[in-house]
Amino acid sequence: MGNIWFPSNQLCQQNWLMCVQNSGCLGILGYPCPRQQTYANTKRLGGFCFWLVVCVLLLYISWTLNFPKEKMSHQGVVVLNVGGLKFTTWPSTLQQFPESRLAKMLSGSDRELRLVNGEFFVDRDGVLFGYILDFLRTLQVSLPSDFTDYWRLQREANFYELYSMADLLSQESLLKPKVEILEIRFLLQETQAFFRVFGSCSSTIDALAGCVTIFAEQLGGPTWNNHNIPSQKPLVPLPLERPSHHDFIFQCGTDYSDRLGARYVSIKPDHRKLINGTNVFGLLVDVLLKEGFHLVSTRTVSAEEKIECYCFERTRPPDALPFSPAQQGSAVSQTKTIRMHKQK
Question: Is 320 exposed, middle or buried (0-12, 13-18, 19+ CB in 10 A)?
């Protein structure tokens, strides 16, 4: 084409160029068309945004899959679904024993214990897992008095590769509840009463002896015999007789042949000072019943002396077996222990 003529007037030239640009004629004349250039730029920008969204989605999916491996062990709490029962705990609790399966679960190295809907699902007994979690929290095995599934709990400990707990559970005799026996021998003679308390557990006898206090008054002046009328004279506390760690002896009432005219008994938490032997016996039995004892039998030890024997018993919960950190040893020795259990 020939030379293009542009009007000399500057305003007319601008108007003419705008018309040519809007009509797309600049592309024909060899000049780039702004409309075509804008469309190409928009197309390139749209493709860039599409791939950007794809990359963001891929990064989010990767972060979600790696969350239990990288995030779960560092922040927040862990929710476990064990046989349908849900438990919530800190990651540090499950990492008490680094070689256990629960610790491996948090690191993502155990393929069987996986994250499902934000919870770690474990297809095992949920009730027994409660004792497993309690061991991880307290580092001791503490079972209720009516517990009997020792073998099944030991099997669960082996499944989670908590062999320290399994070794403690092997001491079944120490974990079983113990029957505690306590015996009261009671002799009532006119204005006096004599007591001897014997127990199979020395700690129980020590605690009970700490609740019993004997008070005595000096002879002199009139004294009310065989009544629960407190003396107006100052009372002096007397120590209990302790023939052994498993028994103690005391008496109450009046004895004018002794320089101590009357003996009163107080049994905590009751603050009364009783002189009548029958009342003291009733208060002592009431204390034992509140402590979980129940009467098993009664018998007469000596018909001539009229010594009555009352036998009580209660079931003591088993003592907790603590786990000593020294038993854990180094990581090498623990790994050897795991291999030995696996070979068995």
Answer: middle
CB neighbours (10 Å) of residue 230? Answer: 16
Per-residue pLDDT of the chain (344 residues; tens, 9 = 90+): 444 444 455 545 555 445 545 544 444 444 455 555 555 555 566 666 777 777 777 777 766 655 444 444 445 899 999 999 999 999 999 999 999 999 999 988 888 888 888 899 999 999 999 999 999 999 988 888 778 888 999 999 999 999 999 988 888 777 777 889 999 999 988 888 999 999 998 889 999 999 999 998 865 555 455 444 544 567 888 888 999 999 999 999 887 665 657 899 999 999 899 999 999 999 999 999 998 899 999 998 876 778 899 999 988 776 667 776 655 553 335 444 544 555 44
Reduce the DSSP state of residue 228 to 3 states and report it.
coil
User: CATH assignment of 78-175?
Assistant: 3.30.710.10
**End-to-end CA, the chain:** 98
C-alpha span between 41 and 224 (Å, rounded): 117
Task: Provide Rg for the chain, Cα atoms.
Answer: 44
- CA angle at 88 for the pair 85 and 91, rounded to the nearest 5°: 130
> Which is nearest to 264 in space by CA: 309, 226, 209?
226
* Helical residues (DSSP H) of 139-276, grouped into ranges: 150-159, 163-169, 172-175, 202-211
| pTM exceeds 0.70 for this model | no
Domain positions in the chain are: 32-65, 78-175, 179-316
Residue 34: cis peptide before it, omega within 30 degrees of 0: no
| C-beta neighbour count of 49 within 10 angstroms | 10
The amino acid that residue 217 corresponds to is E
> Do 205 and 199 touch, CB atoms closer than 8 A?
yes
Residue 129 amino acid letter: F
Q: Work out the number of other CB atoms within 10 angstroms of the CB of residue 243.
A: 10
Alpha helices in 95-175 (DSSP H): 101-107, 126-138, 150-159, 163-169, 172-175
